[in-house]
Amino acid sequence: MSAMERNCTLLLHGKEATPPNEEEIRELLEDKDVEKKQEAMKTLITLQLNGEPMPKMLMVVIRFIVPSDDHKLKKLLLIYWEVIDKTGPDGKLLPEMILVCNNLRNDLSHPNEYIRGCTLRFLCKLKAPTEVEILEPLIPTIKNNLEHRHAFVRRNAVLAVYSIFKSFEPLIADGPELVEAVLQQEQDASCKRNAFLMLFHCCSERAVAYLSENLEQVAGWGDILQLVVLELIRKIVRANPYEKSRYIRCILTLFASESAAGAYECASVLVALSSSATAIRAAAQSYTQLLSSQSDNNIKLIVLERLQDLKRHHSKVLQEMIMDIIRALGSANLDIRKKTLEIMLDLIVPKNIGEVMQVLKKEVQKTQGEEGEKSSEYRAMLINAIHRSAIRFPESASMVVPVLMDFLGDANQSSAVEVILFVREILETFPHLRESVMKKLLETFPTIHSSRVARVALWLIGEFCVAGEDVAAGFTTLKASLGEPPFVPPAEDEAASNGPAAAPRPEGRPVVLADGTYASVVAADEAVGGDDGTQRLRGLLLGGDFFLATVVATTLTKLALRSREHLPTRAANMVAADVMLILTGLLQLGKAGGAGATIDADSQERLQTYLHLLSSPGEEVQALCLVHCREVFSAMLRERAGQEEAEKPAKDVAPEVHRQADDLISVRQLKGGKSDTAALELDDDDDPVSSAAGAFTGELDFAARLKRVTQLTGLSDPVYAEAYVLVHSYDIMLDVLVINQTQEPMTNLCLELATVGDLKLCERPTAYTLAPAESKHIKANIKVSSTETGIVFGSIVYDAHGSPPPGGGGEGAAAE
């Protein structure tokens, strides 16, 4: 077997420069300078791995490199022995390998333990049947190294015995006995681990006997040996469940291990072997301890994944430890925080919702004074978690809503928007909280400096300020935020009357409103405020945000209409007149264009509509503004809740059964060449060759079929052709659609295909006659004989009446 066909056991970085030729390498190998010999060996190994055999160099290496005592050369020599072809053209071992074998025997007896250990490690890689002749003379020396004074040699000697016993058992039939003797006397942890690992894989009875004799001492062994012991216990208990009680106690004692890997593996084995609440609780406690004690973010993510798996089947046990899991929020990594919040949300129950909300409340308050992208994203995640928890457990909303509403004036707009949307849903869903929430909203409204947040807050004031006191408080808050009209300073008013402003009008973006109409939002500086902090709303309006002006008009109109239920007619008319004055001022502001922007037609029409409604209010108008808007919003929330419930994955459904116990087991290799194609789809295991080639495993839908279509000719060619490529096992099926796009019939139309590579065309497609605008499916089968890349190409020929036959052709698809 050539070097290119064998499995690669090492990777070397080659230089981009042109490598020396064989003669130059020979001169470097024969040189007395050790560094030059090292460079020559590296070049020779690289060329050998790249498919340049250079068989003549073998004797040169044996003559000039083998006698050297340089440790680096010895290591390079072992790599060279690994990559060269050790057999001749007849498949038998090369005669030179006798000298190589003698050199290996000398190295196995070398006084330097490093050379011995490296040579033993090299012997682990000899697994070809022809290499048994190299190993056979070395067996006595390998056995002697099991008792070497240095642990490095003994460790690699055990690995060599393990590898030889696994590949060539007759050579060292007493290997398990020898390794067991080493295990009984060995003190080095890594050597004991290698010995126990060999017994575990090659003679599990001896491993079980040794473990049974030393079951009480397992807690004092090294962690690398404990990991193998845990794997053996898993294997024993799965084979014989009655042994579980004997080994569960051993697993529980290993939880006290100082090694994080040992504690993690203990928990994993315990979960795999037992489903009792005590075992799951012990495993979960181990995971939570790792979560709090380990500083590596990768370890925390792995532990959180295990907790997520545990939560699916044992959520009740994890609900008791939710406060331990939630400590992971102290990490600065956003991925860890996100996964922790996901686990926490699924473990919240009425019993622990109070404690969880207190923690989330404190975490939100911690982020209040912090700035930065990560802090803003974490705050948004916390607000979302509080939102979802409060919807599930309404009794907890009262303790967190006032804290969250302090973020309505947050510099991060996404957090403020999340809060105001949460408040909107709370107000509609939980009527008993409306009074306190609306009071807090009116207090925090002057701090809002985001146009989007202000629009939602204004809508809430217009919808949920129903009582007489609330309507009055809403009017007071809005008038304080708007200031006194006019909104256009006198100088600008005169300039507007003399002529239009010369400043260019900024572009706006259309927005679809809740009732289906359009409005335009002009890009304005959302951080603009008034002269003081109480008139930020006025600053946004002066900045040219006329979409916000229409929302202000809507809110004021609703409040004016509601005031008629609580005030006498004369007082209600005065309130309406006051609102009309404000709306007129907004229209004047839009026409003046003081901020470089004039009002758009949609906003102007909406403001004029509200002026008309206030001047002649009727019952239909009041019902439309005060009743129907709320009904539409309630319906939207119900529809969204139903959609979320439908999209939520089912948690308690039974696992899908892919195969029944009495299903037919289909073995593809035993079917023969005439097997039915439909039967191939019943294979128990997927065909790796088919998967690598892109074969399908079931019926493809229309969208999937379109992805496999390849266009072969142009849309304006006389013949349009496209191919649908389907790969199945070692067959490629081409379904070529041919369409005659001319007004003349085409006779003798034929698809001529050819292949390059290890592809074989099974049969030639026949000739057809196509009428004008007629289409035809032409199928061709191609056999694949190797995994190398091949090309399918061809042409379409036909006889045309009255004109020379135009050439039409197209390339096919590449098959790998």
Report what the structure shows:
- The chain has 816 residues and is of the alpha+beta class.
- The strands form three sheets. A five-stranded antiparallel beta sheet has the order 3-4-5-9-7. Strands 8-6-10-11 form a four-stranded antiparallel beta sheet, with no helix packed on it.
- Helix 6 (113-123) runs parallel beside helix 9 (151-167), helix 11 packs parallel to helix 13 (223-239) and helix 30 (546-563) packs antiparallel against helix 31.
- The model is unreliable at 492-497, 499-508, 522-534, 673-699 and 804-816 (pLDDT under 50).
* pLDDT averaged residue by residue: 79
Q: Low-confidence parts lasting 5 or more residues at pLDDT below 50? A: 492-497, 499-508, 522-534, 673-699, 804-816
| Distance from first to last alpha carbon | 23 Å
The assembly state of the depicted protein chains is single chain
List the helices and strands and how they pair.
Elements: H1 22-30, H2 34-49, H3 57-64, H4 71-83, H5 97-108, H6 113-123, H7 132-135, H8 139-145, H9 151-167, H10 175-185, H11 189-202, H12 204-213, H13 223-239, H14 244-254, H15 260-273, H16 277-293, H17 297-313, H18 315-319, H19 322-325, H20 334-347, H21 353-366, H22 373-392, H23 397-405, H24 413-429, H25 434-444, H26 451-464, H27 468-482, H28 490-498, E1 508-512, E2 518-522, H29 536-542, H30 546-563, H31 569-592, H32 601-615, H33 619-647, H34 677-680, H35 688-693, H36 702-707, E3 709-711, E4 719-728, E5 731-740, E6 746-756, E7 759-761, E8 768-770, E9 775-784, E10 790-800, E11 808-815
Antiparallel strand pairs: 1-2, 3-4, 4-5, 5-9, 6-8, 6-10, 7-9, 10-11
Helix pairs in contact: 1-2, 1-3, 2-4, 4-6, 6-9, 9-11, 10-11, 11-12, 11-13, 13-14, 13-15, 14-15, 15-16, 16-17, 17-20, 20-22, 21-22, 21-23, 22-24, 23-24, 24-26, 25-26, 25-27, 26-30, 27-30, 30-31, 30-32, 31-32
